[in-house]
Amino acid sequence: MVRVKRGVTKRRRRKKVIAQAKGYRWGRKSKYRLAKQALMKALTYAYRDRRVKKREFRRLWQIQIQAACRERGKKYSEFIHALKQKNIELDRKVLANLAQDYPEIFSQVFEEAFKQ
Questions:
Q1: pTM for the complete prediction?
Q2: Residue 42 burial (10 A CB sphere; 0-12, 13-18, 19+)
Q3: Which fold has domain 8-114?
């Protein structure tokens, strides 16, 4: 079997890892082993938190809608239930945006949901 010397390949791989760890603190930006460990951890957190971010935004929207509903004398759950019964299909992101930036339009939606 032919002997394989890994000089170029190994250096290229290590330089890539060190480049990705740019901006890290202490030895994690310059020492290959520490940089590789830090990078694996960082990429794991990045993957996980792309999903967590969606959860956190939905919770934030629910809190904003709930605050707007409480000002008008109803609960969040009652409001969402009323919207579903009236087939008003606005998602929580839009409702939260209306509650914060356009309270008069949110009031109209609120009244429409509870209209007999």
A1: 0.80
A2: middle
A3: c-terminal domain of poly(a) binding protein (1.10.1900)
